[in-house]
Every structure is written in C-alpha cells, then in structure tokens.
Amino acid sequence: MAVPRKYWVFLEEELGLVKTIYSDIVDVLKTKGSPSGTYLPREKIEFLRGSDFDKLIVMDRLKPIQIVNLIKELRRDVIDRVMLILEIFAEHAGSKEAKMQIELARLKYYIPLVKEAIRYAKIGELHGFLGAGRYGYEKYYLMLKKREARVRRELEELRRIRGMRRMQRLKAGFPHVAIAGYTCAGKTTLFNAITGLSMPVGPEPFTTLSPKSRRIVYRDASFILTDTVGFIRDLPPEVIEAFYATLEEITTADVIVNVVDASKPIERIRIELETTREILGRIGVHSKPMVVALNKIDLVDDYASIVSEVKVLLASNETLVPVSSVKRINIDRLMDTVYMLVKGGYQ
Ligand SMILES: Nc1nc2c(ncn2[C@@H]2O[C@H](COP(=O)(O)OP(=O)(O)OP(=O)(O)O)[C@@H](O)[C@H]2O)c(=O)[nH]1
Ligand SMILES: [Mg+2]
C-alpha cells in the first residue's frame, strides 16, 4: 500500500479502508506522490520490483496512464484509492439499485483505463489487466460501453420510480428528514434507535448503501425519516454521480440530521463536518435546516469541552444536539429539535 504525503495524517483511516477488503497488508510505503508517468519515483519502483506482494494499492487518484504504467513496471495488480472504494461499495451492495450504481461507477472509471490499455499495442505486456482475458481490449472496450449505456438506462428507470414514490410521500403531506454524514458516524444506529428497526450497522466503512425510509410519528407530527449512504474525504465524483438517485433523498429533505462522531479528535470532527458540507454542496444542498447529532457521546470523557469545541465550528443553520445512539442518551432531545424544525417549515 502506498500513501501520499497529503494522507499521512489520515493513515489510520486509510488503513481502515484497505483492511475492509485486504486483511494482509505487507508494507506501507510513504511517498510524496508525483505527477510523473508512474506516480512513484524510480527508486520506489525498483524497491517494489524486488518485494514480495501480490497487489499494490495506491491511496490516491491516479491517471489511467499511471495505473497502466505501474502494472507494466511491476507486473502485478495495481489499484488506486477510487478503485478500492468502489470495491468496498461492491462488497456491501445488497439491493439491485445499489449493485447497478456501483457497476456504473466502476464502468465510468474503468473505461478510460481500458482505452489507455488499447494505446499499448503490446497487450500481452499487461498481465491479467482488468480481467480482459481472451477478448482483447478493443472488444472489451465496446462491451463496456454498451453495458454502461444499459446500466445507465436501467438506473434512470429506478430513479424515476424512486422519484414517484417521493412525490407520493410529498403529496401525502409528510415532511422528509434525512440522516446524513460521514461514514461510520453512527447514522444507521441512530436510525435504528429512532425507528426500532434493526438495519445492519458495523465498524467498517460503507455498511449502508441503500437508503431506508420509515414513517415516524412524534407528538403531533408525522414525517419520513431516511438513512443514507455515508460520506468520506475525496469521495470520487463517479460515486457521487452513480449514487445521485440515492443522494436525492437528501436533496429533497426538509431537515437534515448530520451525524458526527464525537469520539474522534476535534481536528477530525472539523474535517468530517467540512467533508459533509462540501459533498452536500456538490449535490445541490445549501443551508437547509440541519441538526448536528454529536453521536457516541458515551465514549467521551470531557463532555462539556467537546460540546463547546464543536459549537464554534457550526454554521448558522446548524443546531447541535449531543447524543449516544447506542446508549440512547438524548434521543428525545434530538427528536424535539427535529420536531421543531419540521413544524417550523410546515406551519
Ligand atoms: N459507543 C458508541 N458506538 C456507536 C454509537 N453509534 C454507533 N456506534 C458504533 O459505530 C459503528 C458505526 O455505526 P453505523 O451505525 O454502522 O454507522 P453509519 O454511519 O451508519 O456507517 P455507514 O453506513 O458505514 O456509513 C458501529 O460499530 C456502531 O456500533 C454510539 O452512540 N456509541
Ligand atoms: Mg449505515
């Protein structure tokens, strides 16, 4: 695994991503990360050539030419951070829609790679590359393009159905509350605590890929609560595009509950808040009423100081409620805040 300088401070999180799929990490190579044709400097490549490993994972977004060059140089499998995230998503995709969303994201990322491979006339040099097998890259490329068009059409259809369901909910007059936030913050645990359901939760990233909605009655308000897919730093645009139908559940929400993990250092909390805001901005969500659910408060020793530190990070449309979804601390207070915001928008 090669980690560029910009991610050294996030080494734990990056390792966590890799370990979700690959349990046996032989070595962690720190590198500057360069725009050169092979991304890694010559001496690192020489070092890797003589090392014993099956696959190199570069925790950066590489250009297609860089991936192809690395595969050629090392004669081993090479994937980058985007491909890794797509693998994790693929592993966790349960619903048909999630599977197709992942496939589209993968196709969008792989097609330029195959195109690059075609430019290498000597195809035999790219050993086992992208499973092209006996087809040859030209045929493979055409097949991928066709498949992309088909998946896109099918997803459009699913998106239309999802949109219709959403319209029905709107017509029925139910406001919509979406639970969003960084991956592993505890969104599904909170969703379960509120709804009484037991959707899968877990310490590994991207446990939830299909949004789940449930009608909630709280005091005299009825609203639809939706759990959504988690965010991460540098989430590839291909993933955002492929998951747009899912993320639309957030764009059409009246209120957003942004779940934040209070047990992380304040600098990480700041980055996660920013990441969530940035991704929300990218899908067109700006200054909606938002409750910041500062979750996992049961793990925090100095409750008062973490709350005051997070408070200063908030924007004017954001209200803070410290909670523990596991220990069910302050869930009522969170619901009261959501209730007020929902009522505020619907009177
Ligand atoms: N101690 C503690 N652990 C929590 C709390 N809420 C969630 N967790 C744990 O945090 C981990 C992630 O929880 P999830 O609910 O799966 O998180 P998520 O945000 O839905 O994650 P993704 O769907 O993967 O994006 C799990 O191991 C939970 O048990 C909490 O309030 N306190
Ligand atoms: Mg989840």
Describe the 3D structure.
With about 350 residues, the chain is of the alpha/beta class. It folds into 3 domains: about 1-90, GTPase HflX, N-terminal domain (Rossmann fold); about 95-165; about 175-345, Rossmann fold. Helix content is about 50%, strand content about 15%. The protein has 12 helices and 10 strands. The chain has helices spanning about 10-20, 40-50, 65-75, 80-90, 95-120, 135-170, 185-195, 235-240, 245-250, 265-280, 305-310, 330-345, and strands at about 1-5, 30, 55-60, 75-80, 175-180, 210-220, 220-225, 255-260, 290-295, 320. A 6-stranded mixed β-sheet has the order 6-7-5-8-9-10, with helices on both faces. The protein has a two-stranded parallel ribbon with strand order 1-2. α1 packs across α4, α3 (about 65-75) crosses α5 and α5 (about 95-120) packs antiparallel against α6. The chain is globular and about 65 Å long. The model has no long low-confidence stretch (mean pLDDT about 90). Guanosine-5'-triphosphate (GTP) binds near residues 188, 201, 296, 298 and 326. Magnesium ion (MG) binds near residues 187 and 208. Keywords: Cytoplasm, GTP-binding, Magnesium, Metal-binding, Nucleotide-binding. It is found in: Cytoplasm. GO terms for molecular function: GTP binding; GTPase activity; metal ion binding; ribosome binding. Monomer. Associates with the 50S ribosomal subunit. GTPase that associates with the 50S ribosomal subunit and may have a role during protein synthesis or ribosome biogenesis.
